[in-house]
TrEMBL record:
It comes from the Bacteria. The keyword Hydrolase applies. Keywords: Hydrolase. Signal peptide: none annotated. It comes from Nitrospirillum iridis. This is Nicotinamidase-related amidase. The keyword Transport does not apply. InterPro entries: Isochorismatase-like_dom, Isochorismatase-like_hydrls, Isochorismatase-like_sf.
Amino acid sequence: MAVTTLDPRTALIVIDLQKGLLAMPGQPPLGGVVRNAADLAAAFRRRGLPVVLVTVTGGAPGRTEQGRVPRDLPPDWTELIPELDAQPGDHRVAKRTWGAFPHTDLDAYLKDQGVTQVVVAGVSTSAGVESTAREAHALGYHVTLAVDAMADREAETHHHSVTRIFPRLGETGATADILSLLDGAS
């Protein structure tokens, strides 16, 4: 489903575009993803709409078979990449799970702001972005996914999320489509 509409109180949620995570081995080239996420953030700010910048601060306590986040993280691990141009009015969320809602104030913040729809972008498509989108959908938000403002370490997991999962959760589309809707919402 293409992006057809944005509610008057739509928030942007940018997942894990932070120095430590993007410096990990195996990360795909993110030039276009970063540029698109930054363009979305700037547009949401211009319209006076909430921008939520999410960072992961470590792993959840449960066991997994795959490697975990290293215990000794570099000091700048959680710093947002400068291209996002984080502003004092942006809402920050620090998480320890894939999704941005559990054990954070995100749902309360969005409800306090009167938000009814979220646009989700960031990394990784099949983990942080997908989990946050699923949680937002379960909480009753209208969900839009900016598919060219997200990436995954593996092309096939990105493709699976974008083509199989996201259409069940909401609308998917390109940054340009979302920006066009924002520009038309006067």
